[in-house]
Design goal:
By secondary structure, the chain is an alpha+beta fold. The chain contains 10 helices and 17 strands. The protein binds adenosine-5'-diphosphate (ADP) and magnesium ion. GO terms for molecular function: ATP binding; D-alanine-D-alanine ligase activity; metal ion binding.
């Protein structure tokens, strides 16, 4: 048996300031349970909804129990030391200045979704601190979080996108004025359109507009989440997802078997309620696709991962429809750099169906991060 000193110390960071706080806690609970205690020494770091960092109390609940969502509550205040010499976390005792107690960590697993987690912000903090971490870096995280820049980068790499318009004024400044979508653009996009905040998740702030009379309200709803509003033509088709993992030892990225999200009758699109509240969807893992369709999805998923400069892991979401000539039309909807990570989430399920168990997946992600080491330019 290895001694404690031989173990890799992993700080699993969860919770956070985004609307996906609870789901992050649930994901982290599963990740922690999967880390082999013989090899890993786990430090549980919670970020409260107001942004406070704590070493989570031992009784911190990370599962949904009796319908109650978990939330980071108490714990010892802790802070990430920005000076790379600190190598980790400073424990802050109440009432004192930064205390001497330092917890060195070998690697951080930020199991955080959405703003301040999946958008490059915590990644920047970790790079300043010189601590290796799981997943994409600052740029890929920020670019994948922003639907406008995701589309630009994918398009520039020959990965086709559905028609869309970002609301900007004549100077190019972001401006959530519905009149900026002129008649020609309305004609071109056609109805329905999906009106979205450019940087959000969990379908928050998104409206499917089927009548232009409802468009101004949809723009206001999206703008309440993000000042940058994107209007997308509807892309008809099946919703297909594919997991990507960085290659072992720096090799080419690998794609999982794809899965399909099947909306049950009565559910029009994959909105917030369908994602978390209703029993509105079925997951088909693997998706019922032809071998050619599977290959096309996997190839585009790997290309998207590289186009956005992702690291570690990503889930690439597609629409699979039919082109006017009857051939398949595969369009990437979005790329998630820290997809849901509960055992029933799509990403781990797709990898399980590909032959990578949940503990193997977690192990591989941590090992990749440790191997790559701190990212700052040397
Ligand atoms: N252009 C589109 N055409 C058809 N359906 C769409 C389109 N954009 C979004 N949707 C529907 O809305 C859901 C949420 O949109 P998405 O862009 O994935 O937002 P989020 O980042 O919040 O998950 C999708 O899963 C899909 O059901
Ligand atoms: Mg989505």
């Amino acid at each position: 048996m290895s001694s404690k000193a031989d173990k890799v110390r992993v700080a699993v960071v969860f919770g956070g300031r985004s609307a996906e706080h609870a789901i992050s806690c649930v994901s982290a609970g599963s990740v922690i349970a999967a880390l082999d205690p013989e090899r890993y020494d786990v430090v549980r770091v919670g970020i409260a909804t107001d942004g406070r960092w704590v070493l989570a109390d031992p009784d911190q609940r990370l599962a949904i129990t009796e319908g109650e969502l978990p939330e980071v509550s108490g714990g010892t205040a802790v802070s990430l030391v920005g000076d790379p010499a600190g190598r980790g976390l400073a424990v802050l005792e109440p009432g004192s200045a930064i205390g001497p107690a330092l917890t060195e960590v070998d690697v951080v697993f930020p199991v955080l979704h959405g703003a301040y987690g999946e958008d490059g912000t915590i990644q920047g903090l970790l790079e300043m601190a010189g601590v290796p971490y799981v997943g994409s870096g600052v740029f890929a995280s920020a670019a994948s979080m922003d639907k406008e820049f995701t589309k630009k980068l994918l398009e520039a790499n020959g990965l086709p996108q559905g028609d869309h318009v970002v609301l900007r004024d004549a100077d190019g400044a972001v401006c959530a004025d519905p009149k900026l979508l002129d008649d020609a653009a309305r004609e071109r996009l056609g109805l329905p359109v999906f009106v979205k905040p450019s940087r959000a998740g969990s379908s928050i702030g998104i409206t499917k507009v089927t009548d232009w009379a409802d468009f101004p309200e949809a723009v206001a709803t999206a703008a309440a989440v993000d000042e940058k509003v994107i209007v997308e033509a509807s892309v008809p088709g099946r919703e297909i997802e594919c997991g990507v993992l960085a290659g072992r030892d720096g090799g080419a990225p690998e794609a999982s078997v794809p899965a399909e999200i099947k909306l049950r009758p009565g559910t029009d699109w994959y909105d917030f309620a369908a994602k978390y509240l209703d029993d509105a969807v079925d997951f088909d893992v693997p998706a019922d696709l032809t071998p050619e369709q599977t290959r096309a999805v996997q190839q585009q998923a790997r290309r998207a991962f590289l186009a956005l400069d992702c690291r570690g892991l990503a889930r690439v979401d597609f629409f699979l429809g039919t082109a006017p000539d009857g051939s398949d039309r595969l369009v990437i909807n979005e790329v998630n750099t820290m997809p849901g990570f509960t055992p029933i989430s799509m990403f781990p399920r797709m990898w399980a169906a590909t032959g990578v168990t949940y503990p193997e997946l977690v192990d591989r992600l941590v090992a990749t991060a440790v191997r790559e080491g701190a990212r700052a330019p040397r």
